[in-house]
Description:
2 domains, alpha/beta, five-stranded mixed β-sheet, two-stranded parallel sheet, single chain, Conserved hypothetical protein from pyrococcus furiosus pfu- 392566-001, ParB domain
Amino acid sequence: MEDYHEYVPNVYFEQIPIKNLVSNQDYQRNLAVSHLRRTIENFDLYQINPVKVSRRDGVNYVFNGQHTIEVIAAVSESRETPVWCMIYDDLEYSQEANIFANQMKCIKPLLPYEVFMANVEAGNDDQLLIKSLVESYGMFISQNKAPGSICAIACLEDIYHKFGFHVLDRTLRLCIGTWEGDYNSLSANMLKGIALMIVAFGESMKDDLFKEKVGAFSAREISRTAKERRAGSRGYAESILIAYNKKMKAGLQWSKLYQSQSAVSEESLHFGQAYSATVCFH
């Protein structure tokens, strides 16, 4: 009979109070405060994994799960709280460090589409609402490029969570109405750029003018000018603003694009100068 023991780790499970766990080895990373805060705010008992512990010389060294124990300690408000530990008795310090360094090498992270659809299947309101909104415009969410598909899933969720349902709704309405669902117009940077414009200018930016003036340029032209202006969605917002203001005596004010701190997406921006709208599309 074949021996399967070589495929089964020589471990056992034990509940150990957090106060009896040590996780300050030199090979470990510093605790990520923002990650801890976010996890604590969204604490879910069913997302807790066993902590991996190497028991050497009677000391319980954590080599996988340092954030887990800090989250549980914070939520329970006690380091007396026990956690389930997967205990190894036969590891040396160098082996612990090697396991820690390579633990993510063979793990395939979930794609945004996979996470989104799992949330849909779970009946989570945010994802169901976003999916319904996208479909109300005759589009669908996909992980593959196809006519009528939107693949910028993380972007849709980001706009919804940062700016709310109505900004996401108007972003889709403007984008799809302007370029009729052209796939090049549905990139993350384009969608975020439009959202930044909506947040900065509100109702002073007219939807009919947007479709007429910005729509006079193809999505590729908007993209090309955006890359000449600035990296990321801020460059797209600038490119769209140039198109919107073209040949207008009193267009939208550039300064407003940078005044609203809530419109800042991936970086903090501090601009004192106004930007000229003289750049032309090629």
